[in-house]
């Protein structure tokens, strides 16, 4: 028995789909007036007939799979609703009026010829009653009765068919473009709903907590005596970079505001050298972004294990980079002020 493995494309959805040869069924192509190349290749690999649904519609029980080029309309979900395996050559996800029926076990999208591979071939004798003339056209009235193992490859050279093929290609190109825009808009909205808006709510709660409990103000006042020396800035950088403190200090930039104002005032009054300005900037901003790492990784579609290991790794790395940033800032401060 021949079995074809179909994998989704880069922008598609769906689990790996397996199609096994069944001489009692057909492969249905619903992509226009001509049979889609993907459907033709499937027919050749499985040695099964391919039916153009725009010429003759077989019975649902006689359909092994359906090849479509739908950008998100009703056609995407008709056959998944019937639990018939559906192959979409466009990168269309679960959308349209019947989106709830589009599941990854029977639907796969963004399929190209490179997505097809023959994974099993058992040499079996061919029965005489399965042999059918290659040039014999498919019956228009009852396509479900066809059990030919070959695909009709009769050339279409008339001007009418050429014009129809050109129109089909043009319509397919427009459909691809519209589908791309539609998919991009849908993914943007989903990203905002699932990641951005919850993150905004999370940060708002943290900012309110920091401001209402005066945690940031108290911490800033406690660290302000250290802002006048390079050693003190190292201490501030290490404290602000502690993994269990930095996510709390980041919202609202309370540390940066308090210590920044203090250092600026001391520099303006001449108590602290202007050389402290740049290293102080790095010292008081060590915690910046510490509260954004989990959301940032999830927005980049990182795996759960990556997020679980990446967040503490990032926070711990600040303990190393923070003093280095202060030292580099201090070195580059020479020559900035006369």
Automatic annotation (TrEMBL):
The keyword Translocase does not apply. The chain crosses the membrane at residues 191-210, 222-245, 309-332. The modification Phosphocysteine is found at residue 70. Keywords: Membrane, Transmembrane, Transmembrane helix. One of its GO terms (molecular function) is protein-N(PI)-phosphohistidine-sugar phosphotransferase activity. Residues 1-197 form the PTS EIIB type-5 domain. InterPro entries: PTS_EIIBC_GUT_C, PTS_EIIBC_GUT_N, PTS_sorb_EIIBC. One of its GO terms (cellular component) is membrane. GO terms for biological process: phosphoenolpyruvate-dependent sugar phosphotransferase system. It comes from the Bacteria. This is PTS glucitol/sorbitol transporter subunit IIB. It comes from Citrobacter portucalensis.
């Amino acid at each position: 028995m021949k079995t074809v493995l179909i994998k989704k494309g880069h922008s598609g959805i769906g689990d790996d789909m397996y199609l096994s040869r069944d001489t009692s069924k057909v492969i249905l192509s619903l992509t226009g007036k001509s049979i889609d190349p993907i459907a033709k290749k499937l027919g050749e690999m499985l040695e099964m007939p391919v039916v153009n649904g725009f010429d003759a519609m077989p019975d649902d029980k006689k359909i092994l799979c359906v090849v479509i080029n739908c950008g998100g309309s009703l056609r995407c979900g008709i056959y998944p609703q019937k639990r018939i395996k559906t192959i979409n050559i466009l990168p269309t996800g679960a959308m349209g009026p019947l989106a709830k029926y589009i599941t990854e076990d029977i639907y796969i999208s963004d399929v190209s010829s490179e997505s097809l591979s023959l994974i099993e071939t058992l040499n079996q004798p061919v029965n005489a009653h399965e042999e059918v003339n290659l040039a014999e056209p498919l019956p228009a009235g009852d396509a479900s009765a066809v059990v030919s193992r070959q695909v009709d490859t009769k050339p279409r050279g008339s001007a009418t068919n050429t014009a129809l093929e050109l129109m089909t290609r043009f319509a397919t190109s427009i459909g691809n473009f519209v589908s791309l825009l539609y998919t991009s808009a849908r993914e943007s909205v989903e990203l905002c709903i699932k990641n951005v808006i919850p993150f905004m709510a999370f940060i708002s709660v943290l900012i309110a907590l920091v401001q209402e409990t005066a945690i940031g103000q108290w911490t800033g006042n406690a660290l302000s005596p250290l802002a006048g020396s390079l050693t003190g800035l190292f201490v501030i950088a290490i404290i602000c970079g502690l993994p269990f403190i930095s996510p709390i200090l980041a919202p609202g930039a309370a540390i940066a505001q308090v210590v920044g104002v203090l250092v600026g005032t001391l520099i303006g009054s001449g108590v602290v050298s202007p050389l402290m300005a740049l290293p102080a900037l790095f010292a008081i901003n060590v915690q910046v972004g510490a509260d954004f790492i989990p959301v940032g990784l999830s927005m980049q579609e990182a795996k759960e294990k990556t997020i679980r290991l990446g967040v503490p790794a990032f926070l711990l790395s600040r303990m190393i980079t923070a003093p280095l940033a202060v030292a580099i800032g201090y070195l580059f401060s020479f020559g900035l002020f006369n």
